[in-house]
Amino acid sequence: MSKSLVCFSLALTLLFASNGKAAEKGFVSLFNGKDLSSWQFRGQPAGLRVEEGCIYSGGADGGDLLWTEKEYGNYILRLEWMLSGVGNSGVLIRCTPDSAWDSGFEVQLLAPWTPWRDDLHCTGSIYGYVAVTNRPDETTGRWHQLEVVCDRKQIIIAVNGETCTWADMDRVESLRGKHLRGRIGLQGNHSDPQQWLKFRNLRLRDLDLDPDYVIRGFRDTDPRIQRDTHGAAVKLGDTIVPRLCSLIAEEDSLPSAGARKALFEIAALASAPDAPKALRDKVVQALKDQAGSSGSETLRTYLGWLLGLLGA
C-alpha cells in the first residue's frame, strides 16, 4: 500500500469517526424511521420490521436479511444498533444477495455471551477474515455506533468512535476476490427465540458522488478500480470535467488515457439524440470553459474534437 493511500485512508478515519455536525456533511438517510420501502427482504417480512422508529428483529420472527435496493462501492456507512443479552447479527458489505458471503463480507455484531468468540468473530471484526485489533465494547441493552468506511480496497471499521479493524484487501488473501461494490445488508437476529436486535439512524455518504474522490481512482493500476472509477466519473458528468481535463493535460499514460475515455463517454451520452438539452448544454459549457483556460495544446485539440461531436 502506498504512503499516499495510507495517508488518505487515515484522513478518512479521523474525519468520519468524529461525531461533530461537520462530519455529517454529505450523508443521506437509508431508513426513514417509518417503513422499509427502500429495502428488500429475504425471509419473512415480519422478521425485520419497524417498531418505534427502529428496525426490529426478534429471534422467533423468521427474519433473515434486509438489503438496500441500490448497490454501493465506496462509502462511509453509519448506524446505531442495540442487542439483547444473547443477540447475534451483522452488517453485510458489498454483497450480491444470492451469494452474499461469497461476494462480500460481514461486519459482526455480537453480544458477549460466548467467551469462545475470539477477535476474529467478535463485534467489529470482518467475520472470519480479519480480527479486531482494538476489541470494542459489546455491552447489551444499550445503543452502540458503527461506522464502516469502504475506500476502494481499504476497509476501516469503527465502533463508538474508535477504530477497531483496518484491512487492505490486497494483503488479506481471502478478501482479494471480493466484490468492490454491491448491496448493503442487515442480518436479522439469529439467536434464541426470545432475543432481539434494533437498528436506527442508518445513513451513508457515497464517495463515488465526490469528484475529488473519484478522480484519484484513475491513478490506480487495478483494472477493477479503473472500471469502477470510469463508471462513477461518467455518472458525474459535467461536474467532473475540469478534473478529467487536468489529468489529460498531465499526459501520463495511465490516468490520462482513463480520463480521455471517461470524457469521451460523457460527451457521447450528451450528444445522443434522446439526451436532454440541459445535459448537453452543461457538458458543452464545461468543455468550452476548459478549452478556453487550458495551456495544453494537446488538451485543447481533444476538447475541440469533442465539441465538434456535440455540434458546438
TrEMBL record:
<feature type="domain" description="3-keto-alpha-glucoside-1,2-lyase/3-keto-2-hydroxy-glucal hydratase">
    <location>
        <begin position="26"/>
        <end position="205"/>
    </location>
</feature>
<feature type="signal peptide">
    <location>
        <begin position="1"/>
        <end position="22"/>
    </location>
</feature>
<dbReference type="Pfam" id="PF06439">
    <property type="entry name" value="3keto-disac_hyd"/>
</dbReference>
<dbReference type="InterPro" id="IPR010496">
    <property type="entry name" value="AL/BT2_dom"/>
</dbReference>
<keyword id="KW-0732">Signal</keyword>
<dbReference type="GO" id="GO:0016787">
    <property type="term" value="F:hydrolase activity"/>
</dbReference>
<protein>
    <recommendedName>
        <fullName>3-keto-alpha-glucoside-1,2-lyase/3-keto-2-hydroxy-glucal hydratase domain-containing protein</fullName>
    </recommendedName>
</protein>
